[in-house]
Design brief:
alpha+beta
Length: about 110
């Protein structure tokens, strides 16, 4: 009998003025992952399931920048979120929505 996998979550933040790359700001499994996801939803932060990327990010320390080897995977994630953001705004494509829109207090 196999047990269901524990939920895992990772959260990234990026400040173009201060960061060379996105930073890991939270990660966890089980109850911690659920708390991360709950906070994201409460603050209107888009959530996407990507177990493979989450596993790769899990080896980073909180505050670490995403390493160059993961730039492509993170860029795909950001592109997906831009599309979600655009759809939420009723835009026809991500460029017309703009990615600089702030979502609540979370960043």
């Amino acid at each position: 009998m196999s047990h269901p996998a524990r939920p895992r979550a990772a959260a990234l933040s990026y400040d173009a003025k201060e960061d060379a790359a996105p930073r890991l700001v939270a990660r966890g499994e089980g109850a911690v992952a659920e708390a991360i996801l709950d906070l994201a939803r409460q603050h209107g932060v888009a959530v996407r399931s990507d177990p493979a990327l989450c596993s790769l990010l899990a080896v980073l320390e909180i505050g670490d920048e995403v390493p160059p080897e993961l730039y492509e995977a993170v860029a795909r994630l950001v592109a997906c979120l831009v599309e979600l953001d655009g759809a939420a705004l009723g835009a026809t494509d991500a460029r017309s929505a703009g990615f600089e829109r702030q979502r609540g207090d979370a960043s």
